[in-house]
Amino acid sequence: xxxxxxxxxxxxxxxxxxxxxxxxxxxxxxxxxxxxxxxxxxxxxxxxxxxxxxxxxxxxxxxxxxxxxxxxxxxxxxxxxxxxxxxxxxxxxxxxxxxxxxxxxxxxxxxxxxxxxxxxxxxxxxxxxxxxxxxxxxxxxxxxxxxxxxxxxxxxxxxxxxxxxxxxxxxxxxxxxxxxxxxxxxxxxxxxxxxxxxxxxxxxxxxxxxxxxxxxxxxxxxxxxxxxxxxxxxxxxxxxxxxxxxxxxxxxxxxxxxxxxxxxxxxxxxxxxxxxxxxxxxxx
Length: 284
Ligand SMILES: NC(=O)c1ccc[n+]([C@@H]2O[C@H](COP(=O)([O-])OP(=O)(O)OC[C@H]3O[C@@H](n4cnc5c(N)ncnc54)[C@H](O)[C@@H]3O)[C@@H](O)[C@H]2O)c1
Description:
Number of strands: 7
Structural class: alpha/beta
Number of helices: 7
Order of helices and strands: EHEHEHEHEHEHEH
Number of domains: 1
Helix content: 40-55%
CATH topology: Rossmann fold
CATH superfamily: NAD(P)-binding Rossmann-like Domain
Shape: globular
Bound molecules: nicotinamide-adenine-dinucleotide
Strand content: 5-15%
């Protein structure tokens, strides 16, 4: 059982907070009295979010931060610990995707690498820079890592993204188990957004010009029959308060839409039959 999270004096760092869900999460913390380090690879976007918060009476500090830059992440962590002696909430939100969707066999090696470097190693950099001192600070803390519905559903044409978000899912679950095992006062929540109306579809603006999908022949994946009726587009403004509630309750997971439980149940059944169904002589 963790101690209560103190929102009123929270020191918070949000990556990718220049827009979308990151901005909403930053605003929700600030509305409850927290001091929020609003970071983004796009400095002007980070400044815009910070200004919105400060004008509304909150307290935000804008910083340019590319989550793939481990040294820059360390430098930010050093600054935060020097200024406050602690970090209460670390929100590893920054992420990118690619358009058009493409089959795994139509993606380039650079596509895979770019996606993984930001979506997975960006999270790892946040964890590595902050956790050791967070464990020593002696007060309740919380980490939120943004995965995706892609990690719990199976979306044809979205393989690279799925892999990167499944990696975030995997590491976050183990991280929670490690904190529990060690008796640390640190919660871990995985955020799984469904479809949220943000700038995510334009992520490749941040990529080297020569590698962008629009300057190459990329074969778009033709979706034959996929639909999830429960995944209607949602505005990002709703997501911040969902995350706050999840931290309040130390919920391991927060979803923006109903989970595709039919798929999950079918997967559990198939996993069981992958053993019991195939080894009928097994003595279990
Ligand atoms: N929008 C959706 O439907 C959806 C669905 C599932 C998961 N997600 C995930 O939610 C998170 C937030 O995305 P969003 O939808 O709000 O999109 P968004 O594009 O509005 O926000 C992402 C932010 O991350 C920033 N960013 C990109 N690369 C970065 C880097 N290397 N370092 C630091 N910042 C970087 C962008 O500049 C942007 O401001 C992402 O991890 C995304 O993968 C989004």
